[in-house]
Design brief:
The chain is built from ten helices and ten strands. By secondary structure, it is α+β, with helices and mostly antiparallel strands. α2 runs parallel beside α3, α4 crosses α5 and α4 crosses α9.
């Protein structure tokens, strides 16, 4: 099978939302009047972001999901994507499952694959995603204000806990592992939430490298500080009952791979956020507040500051 046969068979689909899709030297995209284009790229590398024996269907899902999460954090409606993929070999069965997982999520969010690249090499997956958002409604990291509430969606730490089990750092029961694995292998990008937060959130970011690390980006961009209530952070029963509370704390605060949204909003919008949570059937939890100064302090149930050793994942540390 040639490279072009591979592309035609597994990655060419109709693209009615593009002027020109897969098959030429570049795609041609018509952006809606009044909108700006939001663009983001994410790379998944075998051995760093996923294990060599990862289920290809779930890997196809996650490859797109992590990019959709970036669109959600910007309040952008995802429209198009390109996929650059390095393959050790042209494995038909693997490609069929990978592309099925990719396109199942793409259909769910109205995303069209309009191009990319394929090459032989160590397994490496890179998506560039394009979305649309009204210029004045894009969610940014730089808008947090003193007095704003800090919120997160969903639950934190399950993906990191599942990975800790797979790496042999902790042993979960079969039921606990089954409850945590979907967060690691099949994260659900909060696109609908991002759209709902337009005009309500003062800043937003997706949690890919850990809550403290990603919230830290908001604090730096907005030049403010934060106080968090550890007891308020949403965690699963598996984490609350974890044999190692030190590991559980690390998973919740700095584990990463959550792909939930962390955002800030004026306290005056609290009731609106509760309505959004009910409408989307998605837990939204207030976890702290923005304060003057710099840095983030996490308080325990007694109000004492926790000693935080690691804030999140960094590829070069």
């Amino acid at each position: 099978m040639s490279e072009f046969d591979l592309i035609r068979r597994h990655f060419t689909r109709p693209t009615p939302g593009a002027l020109l899709g897969v098959g030429d030297d570049a795609a041609l995209l018509q952006v809606s009047v009044g909108n700006v284009l939001a663009v983001s790229s994410d790379m998944l590398v075998c051995g760093t972001h996923f294990l060599p024996d990862a289920d290809p269907f779930l890997l196809g899902h996650k490859t797109l999901a992590v990019n959709l999460s970036d669109m959600a954090a910007m309040g952008a409606a995802p429209r198009w994507a390109t996929l650059a993929i390095a393959l050790p070999e042209a494995d038909e069965a693997w490609l069929a499952q990978f592309s099925a997982g990719f396109f199942a999520l793409a259909r769910q969010h109205g995303v069209e694959l309009v191009g990319g690249d394929t090459t032989r090499g160590p397994l490496n997956l890179c998506v560039t995603i394009f979305g649309e958002v009204p210029a004045q409604q894009a969610l940014r990291r730089s808008g947090a204000q003193v007095g704003d509430e800090i919120w997160v969606s969903g639950r934190l730490g399950d993906a990191a806990l599942a990975l800790a089990h797979l790496q042999g750092r902790i042993a979960l029961s079969a039921a606990e592992l089954a409850a945590c694995l979907p967060a690691l292998h099949q994260p659900q990008p909060r696109v609908a939430l991002g759209l709902a937060l337009r005009g309500i959130a003062s800043s937003a970011i997706d949690i890919s490298d850990g809550l403290l690390a990603d919230l830290g980006h908001i604090l730096e961009a907005s030049q403010v500080g934060a106080q968090l209530d550890f007891a308020a952070l949403p965690a699963s029963p598996a984490l609350n009952n974890c044999a190692s509370q030190t590991l559980a704390r690390q998973c919740i605060l700095s584990g990463g791979d959550d792909y939930e949204l962390c955002f800030t909003s004026s306290a005056a919008r609290h009731a609106e956020l509760s309505e959004i949570a009910a409408r989307l059937d998605l837990p939204l939890v207030r976890i702290g507040k923005i304060v003057a100064g710099r840095g983030c302090i996490v308080h325990d149930a007694s109000g004492n500051p926790l000693n935080i050793e690691a804030c999140g994942y960094d590829h070069f540390r």
